[in-house]
Amino acid sequence: MATIAPLAEAVAHVVRDGDTVAFEGFTHLIPFAAGHEVIRQGRRDLTLVRMTPDVLYDQLIGAGCARKLVFSWGGNPGVGSLHRFRDAVQHGWPNPLELEEHSHAGMANRYVAAASGLPFAVMRGYTGTDLPAQTANIKSVTCPFTGEVLTAVAALSLDAAVVHAQRADRQGNVQLWGITGVQKEAVLAATRSLVTVEEIVDELEPRPGAVVLPSWVIDYVAEAPGGAHPSYAHDYSVRDNDFYLAWDEISRDRDKFAQWLESVA
Amino acid sequence: MTDDSEYTSDEMMTVAASRALRDGAVCFVGIGLPSTAANLARRTHAENLVLIYESGTIGAKPDRLPLSIGDGVLADTAVSVVGVPEIFNYWLQPGRIDVGFLGAAQLDRFGNINTTVIGGDYRNPGVRLPGAGGAPEIAASCREVVVVVRQTARAFVDRVDFVTSFGFGSGPGEREKLGLTGAGPQLVITDLGVLRPDPRTCELVLVQLHPGVEVETVRERTGWDLKLADDLGRTEPPTDRELAVLRALKH
């Protein structure tokens, strides 16, 4: 059963120094409030995992929380580059950042393998590209039935997964809908998990296309209304595209970023 | 018809890219220029174009241009919304998609795409780019690939610094040897013209110039000895309707 707790307490239990942790959300339901709490708690040496590390990961990297990033696309969607991410990779500021990079299909399958309790997943992917040469987690495998050579990707097991959802009931069952990304897979791939929600309700009314995560696969649920901002929670808020545009200027400059960081702390 | 001065080269590129999409095709759409062109096509000649975004939205019909591949309007208007593992494994991987519509930071004479690093080496790059996203598998598995990219000498190189998405490798027969089922990049649309791979050599050749563009300009902005098609054509300028719809989309 999930424990329903205040955000700071839940984050302190779930995210620890040195963890391999995913804050998932495919442009939708990105757990910004939880990520900012991780910055406030001063977590260090995290291996940050996410398919689409965008502004939240730029913030965590700039704040010095990360040692390594495992990802498939690192940019500010529709805007451009992540300047804190670039500064860390190109200049080691505020500390060097190790990269492990995949394609979206590769990352998705790595989560699926971990969620399924398998050591790897099989896919058609990366063929002919320079990506497999840069990581030990992409190899080939021969099909035992047909002899065909396919791509194998290692399971992506997490110490912790943090996701945001629209709502939970008082038992800690969680419901999310709209673009559901890889949140279910990330939670099931993790040893510890935290779900922040827009609201806690008496009963979860069925929603078309919703994913429901039962309470007993989640460790902590924390209420965090607006906790996905500047990302959004479908039927609760809209994406704050202006913030994503404004972030470009903030993150370009170390001093401006430092000012932003103070506003979070 | 519209006078040349009444539209920008970016508008010409987007219009030319939209015309490449036939009505009824199923199209896996990247964000940015490809998404703009695909949405223009759906509002002009290709009403039944099926748009699939990697966020898992199948058959999205956005009434305004999404800034990201995960804007709420895509989910609200989609026929179906599925998770990310499903969109890649069930929908893209088996070869159900007609057209993969991609952008590029760097593109080479054999249609290989780089969106990873430019200059230096991988661990210590000159410029770090966003990375692969969905492109490697889109480039591999769609029946064909259309690339939309602004033509500059920096972007159009002889060999990409890093192969993020495979085109034709270093020439004929490589896709087949690797077991790739899709036909690869069949069309490259830029702000200057249109390129296609020569079926014999797999090298991208200029097949069409946009209005007012000289061959010399295209050559200056191409990092290899660009060959011209025997029947080099001219793109029809954007129609008033295409321009009106495109501009309305952007507002």
Write up this protein:
The complex is a heterodimer of chains A (about 260) and B (about 250). By secondary structure, chain A is of the alpha/beta class. Chain A has eight helices and 13 strands. The two termini of chain A are about 30 Å apart. Chain B has a single domain, classed as Glutaconate Coenzyme A-transferase (3-Layer(aba) Sandwich). Chain B contains eight helices and 15 strands. Chain B has helices at about 10-20, 35-45, 70-75, 85-90, 135-140, 175, 215-220, 240-250, and strands spanning about 25-30, 50-55, 55-60, 80, 100, 105-110, 115, 115-120, 125-130, 145-150, 155, 185-190, 195, 205-210, 230-235. In chain B, the strands form three sheets. Chain B has a ten-stranded mixed beta sheet, sandwiched between helices. In chain B, strands 7-6-11 form a three-stranded mixed beta sheet, with no helix packed on it. In chain B, strands 8-9 form a two-stranded antiparallel ribbon. In chain B, helix 7 links the parallel strand 14 (about 205-210) and strand 15. In chain B, helix 1 packs across helix 2 and helix 2 packs across helix 8. The relative contact order of chain B is 0.16. At the A-B interface, helix 4 and helix 5 of A face helix 3, strand 4, helix 4, strand 9 and helix 5 of B.
| Structural domains of chain B: how many | 1
SSE order of chain B in H/E notation?
A: HEHEEHEHEEEEEHEEHEEEHEH
What's the total number of strands of chain B?
15
Shape of chain B: globular
Rg of chain A (C-alpha, Å): 18 Å
User: What is the multimeric organization of the chains shown?
Assistant: heterodimer
For the largest interface, the chains and their residue counts are:
A-B, 55 and 51 residues
Please provide a brief summary of the model.
Chain A is of the alpha/beta class.
SSE layout:
The complex is a heterodimer of chains A (265) and B (251).
Chain A: E1 3-4, H1 7-14, E2 20-23, H2 32-40, E3 46-50, H3 55-62, E4 66-71, H4 83-91, E5 98-101, H5 104-115, E6 120-123, E7 138-142, E8 149-154, E9 158-169, E10 174-176, H6 183-188, E11 190-201, E12 211-213, E13 220-223, H7 241-252, H8 254-264
Parallel strand pairs in A: 1-13, 2-3, 2-9, 3-4, 4-5, 9-11, 11-13
Antiparallel strand pairs in A: 6-8, 7-8, 9-10, 10-12
Helix pairs in contact in A: 1-2, 2-3, 3-4, 7-8
Chain B: H1 9-19, E1 26-29, H2 33-43, E2 50-53, E3 57-58, H3 72-77, E4 80-81, H4 84-92, E5 99-102, E6 106-108, E7 113-114, E8 117-121, E9 124-128, H5 135-141, E10 144-148, E11 156-157, H6 174-177, E12 185-189, E13 193-197, E14 204-209, H7 215-220, E15 228-234, H8 240-249
Parallel strand pairs in B: 1-2, 1-5, 5-10, 6-11, 10-12, 14-15
Antiparallel strand pairs in B: 2-3, 3-4, 6-7, 8-9, 12-13, 13-14
Helix pairs in contact in B: 1-2, 2-8
